[in-house]
Amino acid sequence: MGNRLQKYRGCLLAVALGDVIGSKYEWMSSRDLNSQFKTPLDVIHGTSLKEDAYYTDDTQMTICVAESLLKDGRINRENLAQNFSESYDTWRGYGAGTRAVLNAIYTGATVEDASVAEFSEGSYGNGAAMRVAPLGLYFPKNQELLRSAVHDASSITHCHRHGIEGAQIMANAISYMVRVKQFEIDEYWKVITNAVESNNFRLKIDQAMSLSSLDDLIEYGSDISALDSVPTALACAAIHHNCLLTAIGTAILIGGDTDTVASMTGALVGALVGDHAIPETFIKAVDRDNKKGATYLITLADELEKASNKQ
Ligand SMILES: [Mg+2]
Q1: Distance 57 CA to ligand 1 centre (A)
Q2: Which residues pair with 125 in a beta bridge?
Q3: I want to staple 43 with a disulfide (CB 3.0 to 4.6 A). Which of 233, 249, 285, 302 is the partner?
Q4: How remote is the CA of residue 181 from the centroid of ligand 1, in Å?
Q5: Which pTM was predicted?
């Protein structure tokens, strides 16, 4: 178990670790993945990061949330929307709904109008949950401030109630992981169920609590909706809470939306165990030519740790 600073660094670096490795297998089936790799650790150690260890939208938007939070001391929706828009690299695998929102913001639409640019009820995808880690780290003990910040950060691109609810659940789970010195499974699920609002999520989380193996996770499945991916990541993190690399490798072997489920799983277990669980070779490789690579993520984690003491 890492100390407090190691836990903050572990969380943000594992967002990128899951994203970078997971993005190489996105939309592969569990059958193909499990015939290619014998174990979850084979996925991690068998993936070359020599040439193209680039992160995708998951990490890029997580960085935006951390930057805006640290700059404003809260979530200012307009400023965060602007940061999303200015940081948007089109080749980093953004989903269709988020692309439409960011294009609308770029052409001058208000955040309110942009949020329904693609879907009239807003997106129920996992794009708000995948970037919520900095909020869980910033407000580890203040649920009211956390709730309001998650709502504001999520509703820019995912104003559907399930898109926001998935982010609320993930943020609360990350807060739990960074707060505790010892993982207690009953307490973990209690924190999660306390953040649930809808019957749809309640049903999915109830099922997730009983999963205990890769086969269970594969049968349970993963997809791009918050409802079909956040509980999967929560269950994978619970099963493998003591080994970050196994947790991320397992999340990938489930198949489907591998970068986001592995990134969310990484955020959870990274916040529990800390950054010493992450290979140095990976830290050196991730987005090595980008000034917002792994070293920058460590700087953001350190600043979030410092600022969270005042919350
Ligand atoms: Mg992605």
Answers
A1: 5
A2: 225
A3: 249
A4: 30
A5: 0.96
Would you say 250 and 20 are in contact if contact means Cβ atoms under 8 Å apart? no
The distance between the two most distant Cα atoms of the chain, rounded to a whole number of Å, is 50
Q: If you measure from the C-alpha of residue 135 to the centroid of ligand 1, how many angstroms do you get, rounded to a whole number? A: 19
Dig out the tokens for 128 from the structure.
Answer: 């708000």
Calculate how far, in angstroms, residue 95's C-alpha sits from the geometric centre of ligand 1. 8
pLDDT digits (tens, 9 = 90+) for 221-256: 899 999 999 999 999 999 999 999 999 999 999 999
Rounded to the nearest integer, the mean pLDDT of the chain is 94
Flag whether pLDDT at 105 surpasses 80.
Answer: yes
Report which of 222, 166, 163, 238 is spatially closest to residue 195, judged by C-alpha positions: 166
3 state SS of 204: helix
Write the secondary structure of 125-155 as one string of H (helix), E (strand) and C (coil). Answer: ECCCHHHCHHHHHHCCCCHHHHHHHHHHHHC
CA angle (238 as vertex; 235, 240 as ends), nearest 5: 110
pLDDT confidence of 159, banded at 50, 70, 90? Answer: confident
Tokens standing for 6? Answer: 């190691």
DSSP letters along 36-102, please?
Answer: H-SSHHHHHHTS--SS-----HHHHHHHHHHHHHHHHSS--HHHHHHHHHHH--TTS---HHHHHHH
99 in Cβ contact with 129 (< 8 Å)? no
Tokens for 60, please give them: 């890029």
Domains and CATH numbers, the chain: 4-308 (1.10.4080.10)
